[in-house]
Structures are given as structure tokens and as C-alpha cells.
Amino acid sequence: MDIIKVSNLHTSFGKNIVHNDISFSVKEGEIFGVLGGSGSGKSVLVKQIVMLNQIQKGTIKIFDKDISKLSMQDIEKVKLDFSYLFQFGALYSFLNVIENISVMLKEYTNLPSSLIEKIAYTNLDIVGLSKHTAKLYPSELSGGMKKRVALARSLAMQPKVLFLDEPTSGLDPASTQQVNELLLYLKKNLNITIVIITHDLETIKTVLDRFIIIKKEKIFDGNINEALNSKDEFIQDFLTHKKAD
Ligand SMILES: Nc1ncnc2c1ncn2[C@@H]1O[C@H](COP(=O)(O)OP(=O)(O)OP(=O)(O)O)[C@@H](O)[C@H]1O
């Protein structure tokens, strides 16, 4: 089943044409990548899907519903099924780890605080952090740990679709590998669809089920083997990082 279906999307800012007739779909349960060089419109595209940016031309369907035709009530409902982790998804510096993970639950649910704490600890465990980290403040965490806490906060609301903008940016290779393993673990153990913006070759090769590459137009749609077999020079350069940044 298609969870997201983007059709004939056109986006421009003044004379800057960012998306020229982009269509693709994301299937339930897959880890899907949105790839492209810097400024190619990846973030704008994902923000249009999560309804933070306006669609100028074209349609986006979520769970088979055209998002431009949703009622305010439906928009709120769909937004609860989504979790969007920004590139620099900052933690609240004045809250400890477990409080950071609980923030959304406190704001958007009426659950008793004892249950919220339980859910927060469960998600701390899911992202591979021990309960000894629960009372630490963000300034006491490594970059990789901060990413895990931000991920735990996103997962706490039990989203159907998780959107991640550069989940491994700024991490060393070992932490990158750990986050990649975590994403595969989430896919296997939680019933979740993940859409990732990434430049990271390791993530592209080991984590993504399928991906698109955009460069105004969609220039690729498929899996890593298909991409590696492509005769397109841009795609080959992209996959060897000559053009990814
Ligand atoms: N609100 C806006 N007004 C004008 N131009 C915008 C706006 N938002 C984005 N852009 C332009 O749209 C283009 C795509 O931006 P976007 O942030 O989606 O790129 P990206 O592919 O995510 O880049 P990066 O990999 O560097 O994060 C850029 O040229 C950017 O300057």
C-alpha cells in the first residue's frame, strides 16, 4: 500500500525552479530515501509532505487522501501519525533526557504522568540508551546520544511515519553505524515507515529500501543495486560522493 503518493509536483521560488514535475510513492513499512545535491529541494519536499510548506502545483496524497483537501480536523489527525525530526532536532537544554522524551506526550496526550514516564523509559531503551542516562542533561551527552534521544522523543508518540532530515549528520563513523543499525532495528521491530533525507553513503547503501534522487526533476527512483547499475554519470558520481554535497 502507498502511504505517500506525490504526483506532478512543481515548486519554484521566484525564478528558482526547485521541483519540476516530481512524482513518486512511498510504501508502507519501507525505509525510503530522498536524495539530491545541496539545495535540490529535499527539505522543501519533505516539509510539503508533512504540511509545513505549501504545495504550489501537483498533489500529495497521504493514506490515500489528498492533503490539500483535508479538513482542519483531518490535518490534526494526520499530523499525529507523523513525526518529523529536523536536521538539527535540538533537545531542550533545560530538560533532562527523560523529560525531553516526554515533552510531546505531556503536550498532546492526557495520559497520567506515571504512564508517560513508563513510555519514555521504553523509548529510551528502544534507542539503545541505558536508564542511567535518563537524568542527564543534553550538555552531558555525545552527539550520537543526542540524536538517539531526539529519535526516542519522536518515537514516543508512536508515529506511523517517521521523517528524518540527515539523521547521521555531524556523527563520526562509529556513531553513524550505530544510528544506521538503530534505523534497521526500528523497521524490523516497530510497524513504522521511515522517510530519510540523507547524504550519507553508508546509510544509502545499508539502510534504504528505495530512494529517489532529485535535481529539479526526479532523475532516479529505485534501490541501491539499480542505482549502482545505472549508466547515468550524475548518479554514479553522486554515489561516490563526487556530487552529493
Ligand atoms: N521559503 C523559501 N523562499 C525562497 N527560497 C526557498 C525557500 N525555501 C527554500 N528555498 C530554496 O529552495 C531550494 C531548495 O531548498 P532545500 O532546503 O529544500 O534544499 P535541500 O535539498 O534540502 O538542501 P541541503 O541538502 O543543503 O539541506 C534552495 O535553493 C533554497 O534556497
TrEMBL record:
Residues 4-241 form the ABC transporter domain. The keyword Nucleotide-binding applies. Pfam families: ABC_tran. Keywords: ATP-binding, Nucleotide-binding, Transport. GO terms for molecular function: ATP binding; ATP hydrolysis activity. PROSITE patterns: ABC_TRANSPORTER_1 (PS00211), ABC_TRANSPORTER_2 (PS50893). InterPro entries: AAA+_ATPase, ABC_transporter-like_ATP-bd, ABC_transporter-like_CS, P-loop_NTPase. PANTHER family: PROTEIN TRIGALACTOSYLDIACYLGLYCEROL 3, CHLOROPLASTIC. This is Sulfate ABC transporter ATP-binding protein. It comes from Aliarcobacter vitoriensis.
